[in-house]
Amino acid sequence: MGFEATTMKHKGFTLIELLVVIAIIAILAGLLLPALARAKAKAIEAHCLNHHRQICLALEMYQADHAGYYPYSSNGPDYMVAVDTWKLLSPYLPHSRDSLLCPVDKGPFNLFITTQYGLPIPTNELTFKASYFLAPGFYTKFGVAGEDGAYAQQNASQVASPSQKILMVCGAVRGQADFENGFIFPRAHGLKMYSVGFVDGHSGIIHSNLIHLDPRVPADYGVTYNQPDFRDVDH
Fold first, then answer.
1. Which tens digits make up the pLDDT trace of 18-48?
2. CA distance 62 to 49
3. Contact predicate 106/187, CB 8 Å
4. Which of 169, 168, 188 has the alpha carbon at shortest distance from 178?
5. C-alpha–C-alpha distance, residues 44 and 126, integer Å
6. Based on the number of CB atoms within 10 Å of its own CB, is 169 exposed (0-12), middle (13-18) or buried (19 or more)?
7. What DSSP state is assigned to residue 183?
């Protein structure tokens, strides 16, 4: 019994079919890539906000050991922004120090502000690289006769609304692009968007328009100098 040999003929894709497939892939990519970008941005935000929670917890422990007072040193406000806050909180922070660096910060902030502003702080004193800073209103006093702008220690008992009072700010910068006309404008989280931690321990990313300016503080100081008893936001 014989078998007849057969030959299978394979038909390839036509140019039209290939173009259709490419078009479909391009459409799917156009739909998926923005969603992936948003997911990545949300993950970065969550990372930064988690750092706020860790730092605010360290501040709570510091206060418990210091009669409710916030970190303060005799070296002045420049050192408090860039160096001394982290030295004082060091015993209460995780050993890895990863919680001090925001994943989008290209500075980091305390090194960037020291070099760009020309603060009188040797860079070898920046023992901790940090993206975050304690709101200066917690060590600068306004609204008291004869003490406006005075460097002064503040206490938790002065805070009237813990859930509405900004305690910690992320100063993450994109790099040199955020230094304009002698001022630093942290924009790593978006234009006029700020990642902040509140006294009660919660955190969020909010638009600057939602943060009120304390009428006791001159406008050129900015909202981070709002006093402890002032409500920074309405929510």
1. 888 888 888 887 777 776 666 677 778 888 9
2. 20
3. no
4. 188
5. 25
6. buried
7. E
Instruction: Please tell me the chain's helix, strand, coil percentages from 3-state DSSP, rounded to the nearest 5.
Output: 45, 10, 45
Determine phi and psi for 143, rounding to 5 degrees.
85, 5
Contact 211, 232 (CB under 8 A): yes
> Per DSSP, what are the bridge partners of residue 169?
133, 196
198 exposure class (CB count in 10 Å sphere: 0-12, 13-18, 19+): buried
Number of H helices, E strands in the chain: 4, 8
**Tens-place pLDDT, residues 187-223:** 999 999 999 999 999 999 999 999 999 999 998 899 9
In this structure, is the dihedral angle defined by the CA atoms of residues 33, 36, 40 and 41, taken in order, positive or negative?
positive
